[in-house]
């Protein structure tokens, strides 16, 4: 399916055009005037405005970034996913150039933005979109715009994301497997939602045009080859997305991740596992509310992972009534802080070893009389953490092979990190007359 775009616009929130680029000339530029009224009409009808809609035979596709709309319009039956991805790429490239992408930075840099739009798209088709390559020949020094007469070879090569002639005295590759755990537990302790979002992030400092091959304990690969994993388990990844450098045909044929990497930092791939996750850090709360006088909390936290691992920089955010005052705390580990502007208590534990359990008590006065039912409708507790050298899914890098025609030796480094994503636990209703021990 074609992905031709007729025109690109950058507008402010009032619908005023800041930047426009007409690529094909098959649509009147006045078509943009209908965009914001159509979006506002959808909002008035209590609908979430769709990112893609059609009016009078013209397709509108847009994203919102800070105080801007990035809009593409076309008459073609274009691939909407490709167009939306291109709009996000424009936002990323402009952010790389100007640090902050907002109305002011657009007005201050319109000349270089037009140069970038001309290089990134040709006759409505995406072309060079790699920020690092664009910065080699479209540069901005203070208020002076410098454009090289000859673009770098990367623009005309098949490998458009990497320049030729890169040299390092020490050739190294750093690979991080980072997994974020999304979790929601109800007040009864039942897991309502859980998933793992993973990313393989790389920092590449290699000379020349190296070929890299990455092997994972991929279940589909083992099944297709009839082999069994040598140790541990295999995993089945969903929603796998690769950087453009990965040879997709090679992956589809034999599940080999083969690629010529960009120079420096980039995300090689992302994936998702929709699986039942055992809470890594379990937090339960006991709340005793004395109407209009005080409220007391007993918080217990347990690290439910292997003892040889430790969670770093753990933060447990416990919501409290907005009118609470005169806080008193007692904890077996870490520090406790009352943050009145957020109506919460933050319990910080610098290092939480696996298998350990700790408790914290908190006492607050309540200067005003509030309805108990409102007090019980608290937001959930949220937990932040980072566990190095550990993955929840069990993903493993089996090998990372580096080949370059000059035959130099390169050092690969692999690291695993698990961290919180949207990790929340709901608090139970207040209890009466449990007579907690005083602080």
Automatic annotation (TrEMBL):
Keyword Protein transport appears in the UniProt entry: yes
Keywords: Cytoplasmic vesicle, Membrane, Protein transport, Transport
GO cellular component assignments: AP-1 adaptor complex; cytosol; endosome
Subcellular location(s) per record: Cytoplasmic vesicle, Clathrin-coated vesicle membrane
GO biological process: endosome to plasma membrane protein transport; Golgi to endosome transport; Golgi to plasma membrane protein transport; Golgi to vacuole transport; retrograde transport, endosome to Golgi
SUPFAM superfamilies: Second domain of Mu2 adaptin subunit (ap50) of ap2 adaptor, SNARE-like
All residue ranges annotated as the MHD domain in the record: 170-426
Matches recorded under PROSITE patterns: CLAT_ADAPTOR_M_1, CLAT_ADAPTOR_M_2, MHD
Source species, domain of life: Eukaryota
Stored InterPro entries: Adaptor_comp_med_subunit (IPR050431), AP2_Mu_C_sf (IPR036168), AP_mu_sigma_su (IPR022775), Clathrin_mu (IPR001392), Clathrin_mu_CS (IPR018240), Longin-like_dom_sf (IPR011012), MHD (IPR028565)
Family of this protein: Belongs to the adaptor complexes medium subunit family.
Protein name: AP-1 complex subunit MU-1-like protein
